[in-house]
Write a structure and sequence with these properties.
Layout lengths: L1 H11 L6 H19 L5 H68 L8
Length: about 120
């Protein structure tokens, strides 16, 4: 019985924090076995129900994954649009600054008192 040895080893180790997890999993396994053994239905019915529930769970997971994919795609599209707006705004502002500097340079060079090495 390796299972008993595993539980005994976990219980003996005072610093091991996995004891509650092992105990929980052991309790779940024992509960599942007892539930199946004392079920008033036949094995075929139980297997059918398990299969149906597993199919429902798989479908639910697929729907959730699809929903997450769609949301990520939508958010990525929004981020790309925001990036495009920011880049365009920066280009426009840098052109405005460049034009302003060019105007100042032209104004400074056209003034007769201004130094000619600008």
């Amino acid at each position: 019985m390796k299972f008993k040895k595993l539980i005994a080893d976990c219980a003996a180790s005072k610093s091991d924090s996995s004891l509650p997890i092992v105990a929980l999993l052991a309790g779940l396994a024992v509960g599942a076995v007892i539930g199946v053994l004392f079920a008033p239905e036949s094995g075929a019915d139980i297997r059918g129900k398990i299969s149906d529930k597993a199919g429902d769970l798989a479908e639910s997971v697929k729907e959730k994954v699809q929903s997450v994919k769609e949301k990520c795609s939508s958010e990525a599209e929004k981020a790309m649009d925001a990036k495009d707006r920011i880049v365009e705004d920066l280009r426009r502002k840098s052109k405005d600054v460049s034009d302003s500097l060019q105007g100042l340079k032209d104004e400074a060079t056209s003034t007769p008192d201004a130094p000619q090495n600008i």
